[in-house]
Amino acid sequence: MATPQLLLESPPEAKAVQFGIDNPSLFYTLFSQRMSLPEQSLSTGVQRKNVDVFDRDAETNKGYFYTKSLRLSCRLATQRLTDAILATGCLPGRSVLDIGCGDGFFTIRFWDLAQPRSMVGLDPAGHAIAVANTNKGNRPVPFLIGDAHQLPFPDDSFDLALLQGILHHDDNPEDVIREAFRVASEILVLEPNGNNPGLKMIEKTSRYHREHNEKSYTSNQMRRWIEESGGVVAYQQFAGFVPMFCPSVIARTMKALEPVIEAFPVVKKFGCAVTVIVARRRT
Questions:
Q1: Are 270 and 195 in contact (CB under 8 A)?
Q2: How many domains does the chain have?
Q3: 68: number of CA atoms within 13 Å, CB side?
Q4: β-strands 118-123, 158-164: how paired?
Q5: pTM of the model
Q6: Which of 72, 150, 151, 177 has the fewest Cβ atoms nearer than 10 Å?
Q7: What is the pLDDT of residues 161-173, one digit of tens each?
Q8: Which CATH number is 61's domain given?
Q9: Which domain, by its residues, includes 242?
Q10: Does residue 2 fall inside a structural domain?
């Protein structure tokens, strides 16, 4: 098998000729087998302080706390995030790179529910990637260790780059957006809604949020980063109302109120839990 560096440097059109691989899914599977062990890394530039805490979570819990938790609030919130991304209609029939896929919880969901043509998950947390590769079963979804600031793929390798819940953990989110636009002409961003004052309070008071360096950005700030990175926003929506880790009685009440919050433009801009943005590279 060719070395990973040769695989990375080869242009997409030459892969089948050079390596006898004419199936993109097979190529990424072979690449995954070579590069996705927990002790390996595709980059030394990963900001470890924002990664190690998630890596410890994955090692300790065999997944992330909020994806493994049976708490009602976590189940309601993760389902709403799933639905919000599926509602964009961006995934079916396309090649998708899930940047910052973590333990693969959402990646596997999207593979099963959206039926993309191919899907690859990438994250710097080695133990999380190991969990993802275990949990995927027979699905042809490679999970790789890698740095969102230095993606190990040639330009235009994918139709869509998914950035779900990673920008608010990163110290240079605009750089991540630029790199996503390098490997895909379209990006789908889901982030905590930084317009929400309640969310800002949770970020300051919740131990989990503080330990995981949680922060959020306003929708205007994210739109500005996208535009400065050469993108044009094609879709934006606010969704969800149930916060992770809240007591079940509060989760039920907030879930009942969620349709009302999402129904009114001004209310949802400042009341919803997340914002979803689809942007295309400017031509």
A1: yes
A2: 1
A3: 15
A4: unpaired
A5: 0.81
A6: 150
A7: 999 999 988 889 9
A8: 3.40.50.150
A9: 36-281
A10: no
